[in-house]
Amino acid sequence: MIKYAADTSQLFEFQDQNDFDRFRDLLSRSGYMDAGLLDSIGINDDLPAIKGNNHPLLLERTASGSPLHTLIRLFLMEMPVPIDILKKTIKPMTVDDWEQAGLIHCRDQEVVAAIKLLPFQNLVVAFDLTSIMQTPLRENYVMGIGSSTITLSNLTIRRHSRRTLDLGAGCGIHAFLAAPHSDRTIAVDINPRAVQLAKFNAKLNNIRNIECLQGDFFRPVSEQKFDLVVSNPPFVISPETRFIYRDGGLEADSVTRKIVRNVPHVLNEGGYCQILCNWAQTKEQDWGERLENWFEGSGCDAWVMRSESLSAATYASTWIKHTEFFDQETEFAQRFRRWMDYYEEHGIQSVGAGLITMRKSTGKASWFRADESPDKMLGPCGESILAGFELRDFLETVKDDKTFLDSRLRHSPDIRLEQQFDPAEQGWKTTSSFITLTKGFAYRGNSDPLIANLLIKCDGKTPLKNLITDMAASLGASPEQLAPTLCGLIRKLIEQGFLLPGHQN
Question: Which residue segments constitute the domains of the chain, with CATH numbers given?
C-alpha cells in the first residue's frame, strides 16, 4: 500500500510555476482534456469509478503506449505504468517534477498515481484516490466529482456575480465553474488538504480570479458580501466524525441548518445561496414544515426541492458502504447498529435530500416553498431556479382569488401536449393525456381536454376570469362554482412553469 505523507503543506505544487503551463499543455496535446475522452476509448460511463484490473476490454483499448493511453491508465484507471514510458510521455517535464508536486509515487521501475485527475466541463480536476480512506490521512480525504457535484453544478444560477463563495469547496470544482460568470470567486474549506488541492487545480486550469482559504464555515469571509454562495457541505447525518468531507461534526442536520442561519449575513441584497444537502425527517412533523422553521427571521425567501427520501436504514447502509470497503460482515453490522441507534435517539425516521435555494430580500415578508423535484431536469437548470423565484413572487401579489382572476397569463413556449391512443372498434381511442415541459424542470402531469384548452387560450392578454367564464358556459356551470378549484390548479401550473404572467393592467 502507498504511504501518504502526513504533512500536506509541500504537496500539490510545482517548484517551477511554469510547470503548470507545461502540464496543462501536455494534457491538452494528448487529448486528455477533450470532452470526448471517454468516447475515444469506447466508454460512456462515469470513468472515475473504473479500474483497469476489472475491465479487460478497457485495458485492451489503452494498450498502445500513447501519451493519452498512458495518462488514462495512470490517472483514471489507477494502474501502475512503466517509468520509462512515463518519462517519454511527459517530456520536457521530469518524473521528479511530478513526484515532488505530489502527483505520483515511484516504486522500482513503475509509477503509480497519488491523485485522480478527471476532465470535467472544460476543466481538469485533481482530487484524492479512494484508497486514501484506508490510510491515516482518511480524515482529510478530498472528494472528487460525483453525482452530487454534477447535480449542484446543473442547478447553480449562472447569472453575473460580483463575488461568489464556494463554501466547503473540497477540490474547488464549484468555484471554478462559477469563475467565468464571477468577477471574483473564493473557495473556503476547513480541510488543509482540500485547500492545497484547490489551489493546485486553480493554477492548473489557469483560473486567476480565485482565492482559496482555509477556515471553518464563514469565518474567513465574515467581513465580505456575496451575490452567490454555493455549497456542497459535509451534510451526511451520521454519529461519526471520521471524514471531513462527509461528517460535519454537528448533531443530525445541524451543519446545513447552521449555513442557513448564517449565510444571510454574507449575502448582498438579492443575492442567492444554493445548498445541496440532507435533512432529518421525523414521524411527528411534515418535512416541509420542519424546514420552514429554519428560515424564520432570515430575511430570505427560500425554495426547497426534495429529490429523494430514504429510510434511515437504507441511508445508513448506503453511506457506510461508501467508505468501509474492507469491513467484515460483523464490523459492518456493528457500525450499522451504531448509526441506527443514533437515528432512534434523535427521532429520525428517514432522510430527505435535495437543494435549498435562498434569496436575500429584506424589507418585505419572506416566503417559503417546499416541492418535490421533477422527474427530469433537461440541461442546465439555473434559469429554471431564477424563473421559479419570479413566479412565486408573482403569486405572492395575487393571493386572493379576486385579484388572481384579473391576471392575464400566457402559456410557456416550452409546453407540450402528449396523448396516448389505444386501438378501439371505431379506430383510435385517447386513453391518456399529459402536459410536459421540454426544457429545464421538465414537469409532467395529467391533463384533460378542458385544462389543455384553457392552457392554450392563455395568450397573455385575456383575463383569467374570462377564460373561466367561457369554460363554465361550455360545461353548463357557473363561474363561481368552478373558480375556487381552478384557481388552485392554475396556481400550481404557474409554480411549475406551465403558465407565466402576461400583460397585467
Answer: 18-134 (no CATH), 141-309+353-395 (3.40.50.150), 396-501 (3.90.930)
